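dumping this here before i forget
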Amino acid sequence: MKRRTALKLIAAPAILSFANLARAKEKISYLYLLDPCYDAALWAIRNGKVTSDLIDVEATGANIPTLFQATATKQYDVVMSSGISVPAAAKRGLQLRIMSAGLYMAEAGEGGGVWVKKGSPLTEPRQLKGKTLASYALRSVGYMYVREALQREYGLNLALQGGDVGQVEIVAPNLPAALATGRVDAATLIHSQAYRARQSGDFVNICETGKIMIKLHGRMVSAINVSYPEKLAARPKAFAEFHRMFKESVAYALAHRDEVFVAVGKRANIDPKFFDWWFDKTTEIPAVFNEEHAKSVATAWKIAKKYGLIDDVPPIEPYIWRPA
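structure:
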């Protein structure tokens, strides 16, 4: 074998190895609330419609307790979190930075209804006094908005202990049965349940609390996407790329509804029209964080302090990731 040929063969593996390194992409891990609507928002990333030469996105759905636990352990790069999580985390010594608004009330203000069984004697919220109202999470931001709306609009004392209304927490899948059997007098159904209730007529919505909140405070953010200052500082380009991909994936879902909503609806066994209602009437996924979102979150922190969900209301500006 000629010396030149031998050298070429020896060098070839090294050249290929460097080429592979050049093509290697960073990973951004994202933990989000397990929900078919967010599966729709991420569909374009998962199915190669929104891509990147810089990063791969590893998105995982989880329930609320897992989201809380994972936020504290910093095992994911980006986590979907409660809109009031930042000051609560700071109180425990955990620094978070807001990357984008994850859930934002739609202008129509639907989705925050108070539901009763068809034929119930309850026809308006004032009649809830002395009755039982169920929620899937009494200390959630979504239910906090229900409490704020009912207290401000109808004068009900919505303290969890000693208030005008008995408030109980029931796991989400059991809410319709609890309402149907009379175990509770009213309930705040999750969105998929509310959609089915609208279609079936088995339950009646006696109050859209979202519309009241919009009248009182403007549209409200209920969830945010957060990361950690040290992670953002170490890989700013990678996080900026995630930010771009997430925004484009949401836009793709809304521009290709027949493709995305049908695919996700089939997998989740949900009518694709549910996603039209959800995105158009109940909730937006902004995937950015602008001044209106910042104002909304700051307002949410004040409401949360009033209801004893957080202790302090710090200025929001230091907690915003500036590229957002």
